[in-house]
Amino acid sequence: MLAHRIIPIGAVLLALGTAGLAQAQDRVHRFQDRSGAEVELRSGMATYPADGPAPAFSALDTNRDRSISPDEARAYPLLATDFLYADSNRDGRVSEREYARWTAQR
């Protein structure tokens, strides 16, 4: 009978410990560099504002060369973060076809 109570309690404790570990990953480290300047280093998962529909390809292709460069992708943080994946042929640019594929998968 006691074993039936210990297992659920153990599962709850394990779940609580895992949640605490996930929170512990967001850290702030403060130190001084060699010149004496204060440095703050934050680590953890990036957060983005709620995203709605992806912008139109033409809105990101500001120079109208029919592709999105890494600099142009910065206007859409989700694409900038996932640029290497979206650029499936690895030519350093995201074509309209690659962008359509990428937006369909998000």
Would you mind describing this structure in some detail?
The chain is α+β, with helices and mostly antiparallel strands and about 110 residues long. It has a domain at about 55-105: EF-hand (Recoverin, domain 1), CATH 1.10.238. It is built from six helices and four strands, in the order αββαβαααβα. The strands form two sheets. Strands 1-2 form a two-stranded antiparallel ribbon. Strands 3-4 form a two-stranded antiparallel ribbon. The mean pLDDT is about 85.
Give, in spatial order, the strands making up the sheet with the most strands: 1-2
Low-confidence stretches: none
Mean pLDDT: 83
Query: Which structural class do you get from the secondary structure elements?
Result: alpha+beta
Helix/strand order: HEEHEHHHEH
Helix content: 40-55%
- Sheet-strand content, in percent, reads 15-25%
Rg result: 22 Å
Number of helices: 6
Q: Choose one word for the global shape.
A: extended
Pfam family, one: EF-hand_5
GO molecular function: calcium ion binding
Organism: Rhodanobacter denitrificans
Protein name: EF-hand domain-containing protein
